[in-house]
C-alpha cells in the first residue's frame, strides 16, 4: 500500500486479551466473527473513533486490505493500531474460534 505504514501481526501471534476491531461490513460480521471483537465498519470508523479504547488496537477485516487502511489511518491520527495479516480468512484457516449472530455455522469465504 503506497505511502501507508502500519505494523502487522499474524493471527496466531495476537496477544491474549487483545482489543480486536473488525472493520468489515455488517453482513460479513453477521456471517462469522471473532468472539470478543468490536465491530465498526470501515466507512463508520472516522465518526466512531472516539469509541475505541486507549492502547493497542488490532484491526481485522476479511483478507487484510480494509484493515490495513484502517490501521494506517489510526496510526496517522496518533493511535496505536496493528493490522491482522490475512484477516478473518487467516483466522478461520488457523482454526481460531468464531461465532455468528444467527446461531448457525460461521462462514468466511
UniProtKB/TrEMBL annotation:
This is Rhodanese-like domain-containing protein. Residues 14-100 form the Rhodanese domain. SUPFAM superfamilies: Rhodanese/Cell cycle control phosphatase. InterPro entries: GlpE_sulfurtransferase, Rhodanese-like_dom, Rhodanese-like_dom_sf. It comes from Microtetraspora malaysiensis. SMART domains: RHOD. PANTHER family: FAD-DEPENDENT OXIDOREDUCTASE, PYRIDINE NUCLEOTIDE-DISULPHIDE OXIDOREDUCTASE. The lineage of its organism: Bacteria, Bacillati, Actinomycetota, Actinomycetes, Streptosporangiales. Gene3D superfamilies: Rhodanese-like domain (3.40.250.10). It comes from the Bacteria.
Amino acid at each position: 500500500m503506497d505511502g501507508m505504514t502500519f505494523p502487522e501481526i499474524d493471527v496466531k501471534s495476537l496477544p491474549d486479551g487483545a482489543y480486536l476491531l473488525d472493520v468489515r461490513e455488517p453482513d460479513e460480521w453477521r456471517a462469522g466473527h471473532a468472539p470478543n471483537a468490536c465491530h465498526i465498519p470501515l466507512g463508520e470508523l472516522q465518526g466512531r473513533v472516539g469509541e475505541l479504547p486507549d492502547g493497542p488496537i488490532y484491526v481485522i477485516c476479511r483478507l487484510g486490505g480494509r484493515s490495513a487502511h484502517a490501521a494506517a489511518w489510526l496510526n496517522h491520527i496518533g493511535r496505536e493500531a496493528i493490522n491482522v495479516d490475512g484477516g478473518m480468512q487467516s483466522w478461520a484457516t488457523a482454526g481460531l474460534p468464531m461465532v455468528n449472530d444467527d446461531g448457525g455455522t460461521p462462514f468466511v469465504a
